[in-house]
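re: that chain from earlier
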Amino acid sequence: MTAPRASHLIVIIGAGPAGIYAAGKLIEAGHQIVLVNRDIKPGGLAEYGIYFTKHRMKEGLRKHFRRLLANPRVHYFGHVRVGRNGDITLDEVRELLRPSAVLITTGAQGTKRLGIPGEHAPGVYHAKDLVYHYNNLPPFSQRSFLIGQRVAIIGIGNVMVDIAHYLVHARKVEEVIAVARRGPGQRAYTDKEFKAIAANLDVDDLRRELERIRTRVEAIGENVEELYRELTKYLNTPPEEGPSPTRFRFRFLCVPKEIVLGPEGRPIALRVEDTELVRREHSIVAKGLGTCWDLPCDTVIFAVGDKVDEDFGLPVRGTEYVTNPHPDPDYPGDEAYQVYDPEKGEVLEGLFVAGWSRKASDGVVGKAKQDGERGAEALLHYVERLPVEPMGDLAERLEAFRAHLRARGVRFVEYADVQRLEDAERREAERRGLEWFKFATDEEMFHAIESTSAVG
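^ sequence. v structure.
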């Protein structure tokens, strides 16, 4: 069978919102796409990051993704880990498929640490791992999390709210404390997301906390009473999951300095340093005051964002892959998506990043979509300058890629397999009388695919 002609073959690594929406832009332009994904199922953040009870939101995204992934110009390979220590390296992908360009949209799969004593202890976790766990992403779905009864969450964004939501309604722990280096006026979560745990807010404790920080908040012109009204606006909103005994508290204007461990090596307290707020030209920053105190807790969860995977094979600076610092005179803004080698002082030809691979932990699905499409535009500007590529050997390239993966013992899936898996999960949900069902291990998914294939 002769493959359809297209100007170029483009590889996208990572099938989350940024990668899939980028693929949509590229197939509109007439190109062939090979989409390589770490997980069996596509979706990334949309599948494994959004809180697991938000069925309608997830299914709405899946429907759109299905239309794009079913396009004959998209060739999906799931359960393939790309990286220096993965199933295949980036260089091998390029050698086998010979694409005109590669767009990396693998997200922020590294772990961002604060570098404080005790952060590697049992009972100390990173939010991403726990989010993956309760969203049934292998292998995190099978990992044991030793969650106690008094949990401190470091960070005050929407991820903190999701983790608190899980602890309040799924785990029903005694107490959840959100710890913020800045004040209530700088909270990064969306107020409407807070509805899920608003009924558990300890308002008496909140009053005491606002009095504790009153002078430091008022020093930058913020009004404590207004802040209280904003923080409690959804107090009487009944949670969809019903009541929970968990008490939710805030601790503002304190930065973690150490996780204090007990005799068994587990947390007994989070040591924090008081901070004050300082207005800069375009922001409000927290400045340490030197005074420290201990917040009793038995579990600590970092919800401070993530970083890219340093073992992927691209230059890294801070939490992100390095992009071109030099403006593109022809297409201003494209340089932000071009991968750059700071040691050689040059752009890495044909390599682009988008989504959280470009700017780690920035926004959610809507922002990932926007950035993926912008990354696709930058890549299109690049390939437009290249000679048109004959695509008659596309089938051979794809088969060479499959053969290489098989030789490595990689148990990869293609999109027809994903469709079989989704059919199996729908049938299982119906059998159990559930709104949704998701297999929690790779083996269960492969078994479902193979069983459905055999029946078909």
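Residues 1-5 have pLDDT under 50 and may be disordered.
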